[in-house]
Predict the structure.
Amino acid sequence: MTDATGRPRKAGNGEDSIYWDKSKNRYVGATSLGYTPAGKRNRPKVTGKTKTEVRRKLRDLKEELRAGVKTSATYTVTGAVEDWLTHGLKGREQSSINTYRSLASNHITPDLGRARLRDLQADDLDEWLEGKAEILSHTSLKMVRSILRRSINHAQRRGLAMRNVAEWVDLPNGQPGRPSRSLTLEQAEAVLRAREGSWIHAYVVLALLVGVRTEEGRALTWKHVHDAESAETRPHIDVWRSVRRHGDTKTSKSRRSLVMPYQAASVMEVYKVRQRQEAGANWTDDAFVFPSETGEQRSSVNVLRNFRSLLKEAGFEDPKEWTTRMLRTSFVSLLSDHGIPIEVIARVVGHSGSSTTERVYRKQLRPVITSGAEAMDDIFKEKVGTTAPEADGTSH
């Protein structure tokens, strides 16, 4: 800038100047904002490889100043994500936090972590997401973008970011996720014969024949298991707790009482007697049905490892292709194949409506006719060696 005589003049209050800095080998842009309370000139600067880049940064800087936002040149994507993981997830399940942290450490911070948040561009994210779409399932890809978007939103609420470029990018299609699988009747019978007498066998029986979620089974205590002696009606379990925060079940519909098929009731009765003998004077109805070696709630990883060991004994070629969640899928599939109405299946598995059951288990369902725990007695009657009496309902 020059004055009327053609000589350089200082930029006035609110005016910009752009010049080449040979020592930095970059263009420098500055805007004059008057003086600080200490009497020093307030002249923030930005740098860039081109004048266009510098002009954009100056424009963004002014927008931030008008909005009262103070972005830092050193505040990175890693900082934003870590702040959100540490302070933005209060009240969330620890398992959810662990999942977010794992996805962030594996897919966000290695690629974008060093980028300054205020310099992040939508084009950068488009290219990053396209690369991730080649290795991540669509669900994981969606979660990764969500983590970044929510991290930047968290920074915005604290005046550390002006804009959220993660809101501006479209999500590409990721890889197909793990296909939903269910056991055939022959496979289910093999599973029910494996590791008999062990805790994992009893766990599998409840999941496969009663439809208990893995998170519900791990939180189950003996006071919620009613055998033939304690139950006024048929033996049943109260699925009233889970490993979720405060012990709540997934939904209000998930809080339910389920009649046990005769085979399941028999297995649980034998298992309870043995566990009481091992505990001796330390026995209590408040104890977990499937405790760890120290009596604590068993982890999902431990259950999965033991489940795959059981599958190996049952003759499965590749146990790693199976998860404990597939026991529940198999429960739905077996009931559907046996002619149980979808509305009944939805009630037994604790879904809020049959639409959820149809959407999640649509490959296993078919149009149908009858009702509940008695179906499992009928399906596995040759193994159980007994015939179920007339149906008296699947839950109460």
Notes: The two ends are 84 Å apart (CA to CA). The first strand starts at residue 16 and ends at 21.
